[in-house]
Amino acid sequence: MKKKSGLRLRDIILCIVLGLVIAGVGGYFYFRHFQSEQAIAVNQQTRQKIKNDSKAKVKKEKVLNQYRLYGLTDSEIGAAKTLPVTAIGDSVMLGSSAYLKVLFPQMSIDAEVGRQVQAAPAIIDQLKSSGKLKDTVVISLGTNGPMTEADINGILDQLGSNRQVFWVTAYAPGKAWIDPVNKLIHAAAKTHANLHVVDWYYLAGGNDDWFADDGVHPNDAGRVHYYTLIAKDVMKTLDKK
């Protein structure tokens, strides 16, 4: 009878342990799925406006005057016109793509609604194999989900130390992954001399009127701060090289 009791106790313990393992694994995948669904839901609300903004016919001289107003010199504007740049981003970058192209006519922008950082390696591989990966790279990823140290280091290894990489910090109030993502970007910049932080998170903080109702995507007032920040950081950093 004692032997049966011991077996029964062991079976109960095994069942409990197995249940905890299943719950933990299931919880992890549910959390990742929930994060993904949450990001997609936000993007669906603003998808059409972002696409419209990305294809907008902008008045070039008016946009160039905005760049001047926010700190670019005529010399830097002139240099930007001939600078080949590769840009990889999500919907935040997509919404400003038409304005970035005014300053950087030779900028190739691959930006997509809902994109997460894990999509970057395949994009970089494709650009490298086709000879289209430029020596100046701007990345605006991290808004839609978490990333790891391995993610960012892997991307930087792919790009190599000879390219100048500008990574835009993420801004999405209420998203649990934003602080860890931005800390990883800042930490990586300390160990990679060719990585430069474009701190959109710092600039955007406290400026709720810069954003659409979702608090993530810049409206007309906020967009100018986003694209001029990228331009200033790129041109002033390269000017020192």
Automatic annotation (TrEMBL):
InterPro entries: SGNH_hydro_sf (IPR036514). Keywords: Acyltransferase, Membrane, Transferase, Transmembrane, Transmembrane helix. GO terms for molecular function: acyltransferase activity. The chain crosses the membrane at residues 12-31. Gene3D superfamilies: SGNH hydrolase. It comes from the Bacteria. This is Acyltransferase. It comes from Lacticaseibacillus rhamnosus (Lactobacillus rhamnosus). The lineage of its organism: Bacteria, Bacillati, Bacillota, Bacilli, Lactobacillales.
